[in-house]
Design goal:
The complex is a heterotrimer of chains A (328), B (172) and C (357). In chain A, 18% of the residues lie in helices and 34% in strands. Classes of the chains: A alpha/beta (328), B alpha/beta (172), C alpha+beta (357).
Chain lengths: 328, 172, 357
């Protein structure tokens, strides 16, 4: 329409930041805080938002999404909490081992795929382990809005109960903690029973927990629209495979420890993305032809699309077989 | 369960399929001149109320919804006007519209809002029709508001006053 | 002040007029000699200097009179501005976005002084100097959305985002192209578009929704839409259609150049940071046919577009009855020469109209 249509950029807008604090919380989890490099306030965000942190790991670019857990009303800094994953692809290890106060990094503008339903009469938060992070921001926002909420937080042990003390101290009566090693479990059916009409439930944690909450709520007659979840799937390693990118006319190799999206980016081809976790739909790519099997790991495409091989989400999904051609 | 007129038949069918349902059900029924009341009472629902009109029943509906807990199932059956208005109450109370079950029975008449004077004309069965409030000739736009529980009526002869096509029956 | 504000009306005597500056920067919507409905999104990050795309919220010579017209519409029908209770936070988001943008983009017209949550807002063209507490509704004369959109040209739809869907849960709508906020409030994206013809078959709205759901903070988008209006009437609401519809029949071959206006909507989309809602400002620009014809390229092109538009679109846009008269008028300005690509008038490079004898 206007003279110079601008092409959409890959990923959200970027912000240059300086690491302002690195706070180890327990054996596995460390908090990182960022301030804007230019000294100004960071963009306002809504509770539930994440940012994608760009890591320069010996020439290799890693992009990992983390929920922003700091108070949305305080934009002097952002905080994320990173759980070390010794078996993972190295992003969390890089953060734990290499990132120091004063380092300069690049993060994206906040993107919210897990926002609060502000109409809700009451919010019920259910967290498992490091899934507590988005709720830290949500609780701050609910406290400010004066809304009703309660948190049910399941952790492995007292020692690994990230932010348990702080939460219990600040919000007695609203925070309920369950310790696995003491055989405590969230009594989900009881807690869903008797909630006022218009209550919304939010769950963030391991996949099993998310599925359990959805299934239990559904069985108790809760509408699907009142149950919200966020799960970032991490790209899993897999057998290397080869892909032809038709538009760019390139053949690329996807290594064992990189995602298809990362391999596309490494070859210099720009591809859209936001969450890099199979949830937002931005990187959806058409399949031109294939001979083999897809390993779909996203939460975006529907079952039909997964079955007929017409599309793939390159941020998390892989391929095993003879040949794959993509419209990219 | 909220029903009017022939909507009673849908409840009777439901009860026949699953008699246990009635032990937990609260039926609010507006007969609109039909005589299903005794048949519904015979189902022995946990609670039963017969109202002379929707307007008379709405306070009770609001009260029930305000006290209700998550897991409540809402079933609406009968005329479009009844279902639409009751659905709006349930949505206001926090139930997403997609989780409210509806079953249309009886009259195909539509509830219309005149976009000009905002007046509601009930039981409209022709297109175009005359607004019962401001008297303008309105055509039925295929545009439904859940909040108003009404379709939109728009002046048909604004550009050529008096040129109004012969009314056709809706759904023929 | 850099902008000379017009003294003009959008009703009764219709003294609305465009200066040469306003004609030249008019957002002519046709980039080629034909038109088909399309989503046509692009990023909203400025544009050529002086164009309507340059600033986040364009302010032009019609600002003061448009705001006066809005106040009249609202006095007559307060339901043109509504906000469901959960949308107040989004209203504050919008207030902040507009105040920050305008004070940065037009420092000679608007000032914003912030000290924590104590804010002072100075709007020189409208003579406003208010101090209030951000996020405290009791310190403003209206709700935050109404307060700021009484001071911003164009309609504003504030869309809540839930369950991968957009919901029309708040808005200020006084310059609309025949749709009713009071009727549509609370509707989802597909419901409020239900009356648009052809769109469902084209699957166009599904793609548009997907795009809008993914608009992110710091990366606003925009598109154009257009229709036709007889007389420079801003308030073409369905509410008042029984009053203004008749004006369409007042066109004559003699007055069509002055009375018939091309109405262009510059639609922009911004993610709101606190509420995660989406604001959808719809800014309306009007230009009479005779003013458009001062740009030879636009004259040639408008004739071709109106001539070749599919019948259902001409009906939907409400000018099917007047199309023959429009074509009689417009054909005088089409000498058959080719036109350059793009929307700009290219006054320096496009040939003047070849007069036929």
């Amino acid at each position: 329409m206007s003279a110079a249509p601008q092409k959409a950029k890959a990923g959200a807008e970027k912000i240059d930041v300086t690491v302002s604090a690195v706070v180890p919380l327990n054996e596995l989890v460390t908090r990182f805080e960022f301030k804007a490099k230019d000294g100004r306030d960071l963009p306002t965000f809504s509770a539930g938002a994440h940012t994608v942190v760009q890591m320069n790991d010996q020439g290799r670019t890693r992009l990992n999404p983390y929920s922003i857990m700091s108070d949305p009303a305080d934009t002097s800094h952002y905080a994320i909490s990173v759980r070390r994953d010794d078996e993972g692809r190295g992003g969390s290890l890089f953060m734990h081992r290499n990132v120091k106060v004063g380092d300069e990094m690049t993060i994206t503008f906040p993107v919210n795929l897990f926002s609060l339903d502000l109409r809700a009469r009451k919010q019920v938060f259910i967290a498992g382990g490091i899934g507590i992070t988005p709720f830290m921001a949500m609780i701050a926002q609910m406290e400010r809005l004066g809304g009703q909420w309660e948190l049910h937080y399941s952790v492995r042990t007292e020692a690994l109960g990230t932010y348990v003390q702080e939460l219990s101290y600040k919000h007695p009566g609203k925070v309920h903690v369950y310790y696995d090693d003491q055989s405590q479990a969230i009594a989900l059916e009881d807690l869903l029973d008797g909630q006022p009409l218009g209550t919304n439930v939010y769950v963030c944690g391991p996949k099993g927990m998310i599925d359990w909450v959805h299934a239990t709520a559904s069985a108790a007659g809760w509408p699907d629209a009142n149950v919200h979840s966020e799960e970032f799937t991490k790209p899993q390693p897999g057998k290397p495979f080869q892909v032809r990118l038709c538009k760019s006319d390139k053949v690329i190799d996807v290594g064992e420890h990189e995602s298809l999206l990362e391999a596309i980016e490494r070859s210099g081809v720009e591809a859209p993305f936001l969450c890099r976790g199979g949830a937002c739909g931005q990187c959806e790519t058409d399949v031109v032809s294939f001979d083999g099997d897809f390993i779909h790991r996203d939460h975006w495409l529907d079952d039909d699309q997964h079955a007929n091989g017409s599309k793939i989400m390159p941020c998390v999904s892989r391929f095993v077989g003879k040949s794959l051609e993509l419209d990219r | 369960m909220i029903a009017d007129a022939e909507g009673a038949e849908a409840i009777l069918e439901l009860a026949a399929q699953d008699p246990d349902l009635m032990t937990k059900s609260h039926i609010i029924f507006i007969p609109k001149g039909t005589n299903y009341t005794q048949a519904l009472r015979d189902l022995k629902p946990a609670q039963f109320y017969e109202g002379p009109s929707y307007e008379a029943a709405v306070q009770r509906i609001r009260h029930v919804l305000a006290e209700a807990k998550m897991g409540l199932q809402v079933y609406l059956t009968g005329t479009e006007g009844l279902m639409g208005q009751a659905q709006n109450e349930a949505m206001q109370a926090g139930i997403p519209h997609s989780a409210i079950q509806t079953e249309h029975r009886g009259s195909v008449a539509r509830r219309m809002q005149c976009v000009h004077c905002k007046g509601i004309t009930e039981d409209v069965i022709t297109d175009p029709f005359v607004c019962s409030h401001c008297g303008l000739n309105l055509f039925v736009r295929d545009h439904y508001s859940r909040r108003l529980a009404a379709y939109q009526g728009v002046c048909i002869d604004a550009e050529d006053p008096g040129n109004v096509p012969e009314p056709q029956e809706l759904y023929t | 002040m850099t902008i000379q504000f017009n003294e003009e009306t959008f009703r009764d005597d219709y003294s609305f007029h465009n200066s040469d500056w306003a004609i030249k920067r008019f957002p002519f919507p046709f980039h080629e000699d034909s038109y088909m409905y399309a989503v046509n999104m692009e990023q909203h990050r400025g544009g050529p200097e002086g164009s309507v795309y340059e600033k986040r919220f364009d302010v032009d010579e019609h600002y003061v009179s448009e705001m006066r017209d809005r106040a009249m519409v609202l006095a007559d029908d307060p339901l043109r501005c509504q906000s469901l209770p959960h949308m107040t936070l989004a209203g504050w988001d919008l207030l902040e976005l507009i105040m920050v943008s305008k004070s940065e983009d037009y420092p000679d017209l608007f000032e914003l002084h912030r000290n924590g949550n104590q804010w002072r807002w100075v709007n020189k063209p409208l003579g406003i100097d208010d101090t209030f507490t951000f996020l405290d509704e009791t310190t403003l004369p209206y709700g935050p959305m109404e307060y700021i959109t009484r001071q911003a040209q164009g309609d504003f739809c504030v869309l809540d985002q839930r369950d991968d869907m957009l919901w029309m849960d708040a808005g200020m709508v006084t310059t609309q192209a025949d749709w009713s906020l009071d009727f549509d409030i609370g509707m989802n994206f597909f419901e409020w578009h239900a009356p648009v013809p052809l769109a469902h078959e084209m699957g166009i709205f599904k793609r548009a929704l997907k795009f809008l759901l993914n608009i992110q903070q710091g990366a606003p988008a925009r598109r154009l839409n257009w229709t036709m209006t007889v007389n420079p009437l801003l308030d073409t609401s369905p509410e008042n259609y029984h009053k203004w519809g008749i004006q369409k029949t007042t066109l004559t071959p003699e007055n069509i150049g002055a009375k018939q206006h091309l109405r262009v909507e510059l639609q922009t989309f911004f993610r709101l940071p606190r509420s995660n809602a989406l604001v959808f400002p719809i800014r309306c620009y009007l230009c009479s046919f005779q003013d458009l014809m001062t740009m030879p390229k636009w004259g040639r092109r408008l004739h071709r577009v109106v001539r070749d538009l599919p019948e259902e679109l001409a009906t939907y846009k409400g000018f099917i009855d007047n199309r023959p008269m429009m074509l009689d008028y417009l054909s005088q300005f089409d000498d058959g020469l080719p036109t350059s690509r793009g929307v700009w008038p290219d006054l320096d490079t496009e040939p003047a109209l070849k007069k036929s004898s």
